[in-house]
Amino acid sequence: MEWILFDKDGTLIEFDSSWEKIGVRLVDKLLDTFPVHDKEAAHRQLGIIDDKVVPDSIMGSGSLAEVIKSFDDVTGQDTSDWTRDTSQELVDTREPDNKWIEGVQDTIQELRNEGYRIGIVTSDTKKGVDHFLEETNTRHLFDLVISTETHAEEKPHPKVLDPLFNAYDVLPNQVAIIGDTPNDMKTAINAKLGLGIGVLTGVAKREELYEADVIIDSAKDIKKVLEQYEK
């Protein structure tokens, strides 16, 4: 294994509560812009209950493309442009939390010392990732950052990893991805990566990460997995 790609929220840092607020606000704005007969039923269908996001719902773990399809189903209209523009606006104006999960930062430094290349693959925007790296003074830990902008491919589409494979001479089976959602594991499968490693520090439960090659409690435990893989 040559490259280790980390998801950000829920994997490197504690899940950012501002993402939940964005999900709730996005659905509220949707139902104000595209009125439906039963708002309560629409909230439940999209995964918003008591102003909170249900973790395994479309708003809790779905990709933007999946969210758009669900919005279209709820409203009976094409919401694609509206959803992309509005979600981007909400992301750009959020106030993120950036608290490293205990032990993960030290583990990444150890991996670098051992010769691994380290990257981030996140559904956050470049602005959000830059804010995290600058606030925590950890930009030096990462060789590559892949963020998700409007109209760009995102996890679990394999083309999300094009910035890695286009810039570096590395084969998919020499790459591991570690994350806290089913989409992270689907990315590993779709891109034919060497390892998909699930962690339990984010939004998904163990049973939701069934497509992972390995499930560990935290990204700080990844070295044990890599040592077993190398054997």
UniProtKB/TrEMBL annotation:
Source organism superkingdom: Bacteria
Keyword Nucleotide-binding (UniProt): no
SUPFAM superfamilies the record matches: HAD-like
Key word Hydrolase present: yes
PANTHER family: PHOSPHOGLYCOLATE PHOSPHATASE
Protein name: Phosphoglycolate phosphatase
InterPro entries: HAD-like_hydrolase_sf, HAD-like_sf, HAD-SF_hydro_IA, HAD_2, HAD_sf
Name of the encoding gene: gph
Annotated organism of origin: Staphylococcus saccharolyticus
